[in-house]
Structure formats: structure tokens, C-alpha cells
Amino acid sequence: MQNDVLMQQEAKNQPSIELSKPMELYQSPENDYEKSDINPRAIITSIVVGTVVIAVIMFFLAEFFKVQREEKYVSSTLIPESTLLRDVKSKEDGVINSYGIVDINKQIYRMPVSEAMQKMAEEAKVAKLNQQQIQPPANTDTPTKDEKPAAQLQSNSKRAKAIKK
Q1: Buried (b) or exposed (e) across 27-41, using 16+ Cβ within 10 A?
Q2: Which is the most buried residue in 38, 93, 112, 142, by most CB within 10 A?
Q3: Residues 112, 96: contact at Cβ < 8 Å?
């Protein structure tokens, strides 16, 4: 009886697989490797479905932002202006595009902007032509970029003679 009790205790403490037969451990169907490959159809299907879902989301987002942009444009251009704003703009246009007297005592007058720009351009052109005519002739002592000083020309001719010899 003591032997049976000892055997039961040893059986509890030891693993159920016998170590004397290690090959049986590897050949049992419970510890075998997986013999089937991954399912390529499932992987390809999940990639395609994911791509389609992302494309659909991107399309709807693009349409959403396009609609938002159009609504903003329509609201900013088609909403009628207030009468006060229209009055201010018309007064400003009238001042900018008309003749008038600003200060009669100081003799300050107003003219349309387009004419003032043309007049300023003509005055600048005349001033530039007058400046070119009044300029003194260039100093003849200093050579221009195309001319070489006489001393440099002489030294170059001496070098050329020395090379020929």
C-alpha cells in the first residue's frame, strides 16, 4: 500500500510524458506543425476591401470640401451688399475718378487717378531725358572697360616681342 501511495505521489510530481521516449513527443498529432498555408484569398480580399473603403471615404471628403467651398463663394458673392456699404463705395469711386478742389487757399486740386498716373509717367520720362542731356561728358583720363591703359598696352607689346625672340 505504501508503494501505491508513493507511486501516486511520484506520478503527480512528474510530467505525464515519459522522457525515455522523446521521439514520441514530436510525432504526436498534438505537437505537430501547421501543415496548411495562409489563405491568400482572405488576405487579398481584406486589402482590396480596405483600399475601397479608404477610396470611398476620400471621395466623400473631397465632395464635402468642394460643396463647402462653393457655398462660401456663393454666400460671399451673391449676398446683397448693405445700402450703407454701397453708398460708401460710390462716394469713394466718385472722389477717385473725378476732378475737384481740395483746398482753394493752398491751390490744391484733385484729378482722376488714371490721369494722374499718366501725367506722372510723362513727367518722369521728360526728367530722365533732361538728365541724360545735361550730364557732363565722361572723364577721358579714366579708361572705359573696353579700353586698356597705355602702360598696360606697352607692357603687353614687350611681352609679345620677348615671346617671339
Answers
A1: eeeeeeeeeeeeeee
A2: 112
A3: yes
